[in-house]
Write a structure and sequence with these properties.
Helices cover about 35% and strands about 35% of the residues. The chain has about 240 residues and is of the alpha+beta class. It folds into two domains: about 1-125, Alpha-Beta Plaits (2-Layer Sandwich), CATH 3.30.70; about 125-235, Alpha-Beta Plaits, CATH 3.30.70.100. An eight-stranded antiparallel β-barrel has the order 1-3-2-8-5-7-6-4, surrounded by five helices. The radius of gyration is 17 Å and the shape is globular.
Length: about 240
């Protein structure tokens, strides 16, 4: 019960931090929750998730709720199932409305018992062109890479320089559809966090590209951060 309370408190504190620190904006905000399903809780997780999302998406300004199932992770494969939930909020005012909805928070309590948060952030896109959550990796076979990274202290400038070089080369590869970079505006343990996404045409091309990157000089980029959640997933909703 103590662990459940801590998990719930972390989520709520993410909402509170955002509501208190963010400036008023009409720009959409995207919530990303990377969740590890607790052992033997798969069925409970799915049931609780459905109940929670049904209530969440009824709140005005909440849209494009998506769910992805991770099939691979770096640097160490996940031992338990991992699902990535993403939700679009119309503005920070919408986040505040969610935070103050007691019925929704009560529903989350049941959901929290079934999972642990691997990463939890609110983000806004800053690079890569238009970001449409409704169609993100939606076509059959497409693969979504989501990278939640903690930049090593003192290496922020190097990280940014090397990231741009790596993403530029990645974008030239056959099978890469699009990449985005996001700024983290709130969430859980967000110090020096950076978030990126890439969509690949299919798993075969993703694997070939992954093998090729091991020989790239640009892959030295990976030495500038510690991975929080590097997930490869496909859409299930």
């Amino acid at each position: 019960m103590k662990r459940l309370f801590i998990t719930f408190s972390l989520l709520v504190s993410g909402f509170i931090t955002y509501a208190q620190s963010a400036k008023s904006t009409a720009s959409p905000i995207f919530e990303i929750a990377v969740r590890t399903v607790k052992e033997s809780k798969n069925e409970d997780f799915e049931k609780a998730r459905k109940a929670f999302i049904e209530k969440l998406t009824k709140i005005k300004g909440v849209s494009n709720d998506r769910e992805f199932q991770s099939f691979y992770a770096l640097p160490t494969p996940d031992k338990l199932p991992v699902f990535i939930g993403m939700t679009q909020y119309e503005s920070n005012a919408t986040v505040g409305a969610v935070q103050s909805n007691n019925d929704l928070m009560s529903s989350f309590m049941s959901f929290a018992q079934t999972m642990d948060l691997k990463a939890y952030v609110f983000v806004q896109p800053i690079e890569g062109g238009e970001f449409n959550l409704a169609t993100l990796a939606k076509k059959q076979g497409q693969i979504l890479e989501i990278a939640v990274r903690r930049v090593k202290e003192g290496q922020e400038a190097e990280f940014e320089k090397m990231r741009k070089s790596f993403v530029a080369k990645l974008g030239t590869q056959v099978g890469v559809i699009q990449s985005w970079e996001f700024k983290v505006v709130a969430g859980q343990n967000t110090e020096r966090l950076a978030v990126g996404m890439t969509v690949y045409e299919n798993q075969e091309k993703f694997q070939k590209i992954g093998q090729a990157t091991q020989t790239w000089a640009e892959s030295a980029f990976f030495g500038t951060f510690d991975p929080v959640a590097l997930q490869y997933a496909y859409s299930i909703k």
